[in-house]
Amino acid sequence: MELQPDSTLLWFMAVYAVIMIGIGIFMSKKVSGSEDFVLAGKSLGPFVLMGTLLATWTGSGSISGGETSMAYTYGIIPAIMYMLPTLIGILILYVVAPKIRAFGKFTVAGILEAKYGTTSRNLASLIIILAYVGIVSYQIQGFGFILNITTGMDVSQGTIIGAVMIIFLAMIGGLRSVSQTDALSGFLMVGGLLITVPTIIIIAGGWSEIIANVPESHTTATGGLTTLQLIGFLLPSLFLLLGDQNMYQRLASSKNDQASKRGQIGWLIAMLVISPSIAIIAFASRSIFPDIDPGMALLATTVVMPVAIGGLLLAAAASFIITTGNSYLLSAATNLTYDIYSNYIDKDASDKKKLWMTRLFIVILGVLAFIIIRFFPTVLAVQMYAYTVYGAGITPAVLAVFFWKRVTAAGGIASMFTGLFTTLIWEIPLGQPFELNAAVISVPIAIIVLIVVSLSTQNKDH
What we know:
Elements: H1 10-28, H2 34-39, H3 46-57, H4 60-63, H5 66-73, H6 76-81, H7 84-103, H8 108-116, H9 118-151, H10 155-203, H11 207-213, H12 227-243, H13 245-252, H14 257-288, H15 297-300, H16 307-345, H17 351-372, H18 379-393, H19 395-403, H20 409-427, H21 439-456, H22 458-461
Helix pairs in contact: 1-10, 1-16, 3-10, 3-13, 3-14, 3-16, 5-14, 7-12, 7-14, 8-9, 9-10, 9-16, 9-17, 9-18, 9-20, 10-14, 10-16, 10-17, 11-14, 12-18, 12-19, 16-17, 18-20, 18-21, 19-20, 20-21
């Protein structure tokens, strides 16, 4: 079937956009300072915390990359397997959350500095900005996909509109407003997916018809991927989640440990619904639309469903894309303000000035994200790059802070540098040898370096 734009769906988008902007403006009036802007005054209850964790993690990475692209390109089983790293990561964060709250830091770089010193903070800030700008970039393009489906607008033009909306909503209210729109988006998405799954299976002619219309490899356990290639898709999301500054900031923003635990349990349950649902919808899309961009797979189904259901799913997808973009943009700007600007440029900056500098950095990084997306062939490609830069460069070192008392400053810093350097070399000059994502190489090397260097420098650190 040929993909035809349906402008009727744009009304659902318009209503959603008005609600999001209204909430953003309303909550922005409650921002009283920089800490309130970054950590929402540490006031998030379990309901809002669950929604913001869910919406932040499940953005365009799932809607246009992740489970969607995996199901469309490789099949239903690899796509469902893509959920496993997230579930494992949530369970580990459940254990780590009280320690994260106890640190009381605005950024992961601040946590690393407390253990490894100033060099680690500077290196962490660089890695986080490199990764998060990449993540924001494909949220922006995901919004371009939505406008392409609803209006026929060129994806590049829609991407500009997406960039403006994401930058605006992140800038006006910070986490104080983002957390509220996240909560709304999270529950909208769960409802939209639950309705869409049975509907799209019926429209596609039933499960047996879907199976008959997809390539034979799409029904196998690995979808034609080698074991190493499949691991290369699974590792990046796990190691991003385990050290993700966005998640750390949200856990630190909860009212107390009890609210944090309840919010994470709700997040886990919601992911058990969302990830398989996205995979099934994208897999059905492969049967209906065999020749579209894999990143369009889920969104394309909105034009063949009843208008009300398609519109609900489209609004839900847009909500996840925008809130994830807001969150990662805000988080990266926080690093620039607290780890670089206030430490090296203006050490005596007032709280008000830090607030406005964070807003300025949101705009600068948003523009940079818009530029970066033009250099990657697919959403899944930039997603794997961004996740691995972070997962190899940050996560081994930050987890060692919580779980390994023998780690040394030299070991932590060496691991961070090695993870970043190996990822960039593997992905850019070498161009992914053997079609393996860098995570298969860079994550194990970063962990080995962390252990070896720490053990060999024990006496120097103590």
